[in-house]
Design goal:
4 domains, Ribonuclease HI, Chain A, Bifunctional carbon monoxide dehydrogenase/acetyl-coa synthase(codh/acs), Chain M, domain 5, alpha+beta, globular, Bifunctional carbon monoxide dehydrogenase/acetyl-coa synthase(codh/acs), Chain M, domain 3, 11 helices, four-stranded mixed beta sheet, disordered C terminus
Length: about 475
């Protein structure tokens, strides 16, 4: 099928990483503001099947080891192809590109990040035409309803600007369509396994009010994908019985999660970052991260290049969030989920959000309660926890009321539920070596009623009074 491609193409290469020192070129990525991939349905007479066009420099003309802008426009046609399928077909770009040896594709839509390895480049993978041929073949073989596929790669910085703006309008129009539907209105949710090559235990659950973490698949997209390819990577989940309406726990979701994660994930809360939070792969658009000093959440999007108010960058927190784990207080999210009325609903929603980048705040203005909006700090207001506490107090953020309530309690809770010990560490597998044995704590969560921090003095003495590390 791929005799003309100079490298191997197959499932075996899914999940491969191309590190910076091993890459020939980088396409898109976090250092470039404008990049995209989009699928558009066209009338059959407007496109030519098999045509692959490159507007701008091809791979040999790109600067080695540096980022180049990239837009990918895939135009499709077919008697049974409808515009509702655009988002579904679009997400397959990620999957098909990762079949190519030495060609790493991360994220989606306006966040794409691609690297080509030096090894594959030396083997002859030296043109985007090869990538287009693989995509063309797989689109037509795996989705037979597609009769024509025409692909355009745009690498010219000037040519990409108007197309990027047009793509952003298209994404917004798709996203807006699902906002009028509630999770209570449907009996079926959808799951997506497209990222399991990178995170084998990740189970993405897509509902009308909880968009996929990547921001690329809505409930309508899930329904369309499962309809045309029932055995494909996007599949139906019977909602089942509602176990906890506030947290968003359903028997059908739990059963599906257990099966798809090979028993690693048994319960999922769709609307909470604590207890059994929805897992994250690595393609999430942003992270909701718990800030214990103020008992609130910060939000950081992938595009934010500075450190956040807790002193950590997106990339650092992404390591704690990704991998298909359930880690309390680190929650992969999409922009569209942040527009949902069920966004972190069990944890207080926007009444618990205390910090986010200014660009994100402006983008979500109409979805954040008007009385809370001015009380949420940005990087322009607070760059440290001390600054944040001052800002929240001065602006009477709703979370300040929680501080007063907690001061009068013997124990405090990370979430809005019953009191519980302070969680001081949450992780995946924690190895312990002792007496010749290696003990591994699977999906460990360590809690403590109190944490005492004492300075170590010479000869084993401790000095000064101990300080109890509690939540505010």
């Amino acid at each position: 099928m791929f005799e003309s491609i100079p490298v191997e193409v197959g499932l075996v290469h899914e999940g491969e990483r191309v590190r910076k020192q091993d890459m020939q070129v980088e396409l898109g990525g976090p250092s470039l503001p404008e990049k995209f991939e989009i699928v558009r349905v066209r009338p059959g007479d407007e496109i030519t099947d098999g045509v692959i066009e490159i507007i701008g420099p091809d791979i040999p003309d790109m600067p080695e080891g540096k980022a180049t802008p990239l837009g990918i426009l895939v135009e499709i046609a077919g008697e049974k192809v409808e515009p509702d399928l655009e988002g579904v077909v679009e997400r397959r770009i990620h999957e098909y590109c990762n079949y190519i040896e030495g060609f790493m594709h991360l994220n989606q839509r306006y966040d794409i990040w691609i690297r080509l390895s030096k090894k594959s480049y030396k083997k002859g993978l030296n043109s985007l035409t090869h990538i287009g041929k693989v995509m063309h073949t797989l689109f037509k073989s795996e989705l037979p309803i597609i009769e024509k596929v025409q692909i355009t790669f745009i690498t010219d910085p000037l040519e990409i600007k108007p197309l990027y703006a047009e793509a952003m309008k298209t994404y917004e129009a798709r996203d807006a369509r699902a906002r009028g539907l509630s999770d209570d209105d449907v009996d079926t949710f959808y799951g997506c396994a497209l990222c399991q090559s990178f995170a084998p235990t990740h189970v993405c659950v897509i509902t009308p009010q909880r968009y996929a973490n990547c921001g690329a698949i809505s409930w309508f997209d899930g329904r369309a994908a499962a309809g045309i390819d029932p055995k494909g990577p996007i599949y139906a989940i019977a909602k089942g019985e509602c176990v906890d309406k506030e947290k968003g726990e359903y028997t059908g979701v739990n059963e599906s999660a257990k099966q798809r994660s090979m028993g690693e994930v048994n319960r999922v809360y769709l609307y909470s970052a604590f207890g059994y939070p929805h897992t994250s792969c690595g393609c999430f658009e942003g992270i909701a991260f718990y800030i214990p000093e103020v008992d609130g959440f910060g939000i950081v999007m992938r595009s934010f290049r500075d450190v956040t108010v807790n002193g950590l960058a997106f990339s650092t927190m992404a390591d704690s969030t990704a991998g298909g784990r359930q880690v309390d207080g680190f929650h992969g999210i999409s922009i569209e989920y942040m527009r949902s009325k069920r966004f972190l609903d069990a944890d207080g929603g926007y009444c618990r959000v205390v910090w986010m980048p200014q660009e994100t705040k402006d983008r979500l203005k109409e979805f954040i309660p008007a009385d809370v909006f001015p009380a949420i700090a940005t990087e322009l207001d607070a760059t440290s926890i001390t600054d944040l506490k001052t800002f929240l107090t001065e602006h009477n953020h709703p979370v300040v009321n929680r501080w007063s309530a907690q001061e009068n309690a013997d124990e405090t809770d990370l979430s809005a539920g019953p009191a519980s010990p302070v969680q001081v560490f949450s992780g995946g597998d924690i190895p312990i070596t002792t007496a010749g044995f290696r003990i591994i704590l699977k999906n460990a969560k360590i809690t403590a009623d109190k944490v005492i921090i004492q300075p170590i003095r010479p000869h084993g003495k401790t000095g000064g009074e101990s300080r109890d590390a509690k939540k505010p």
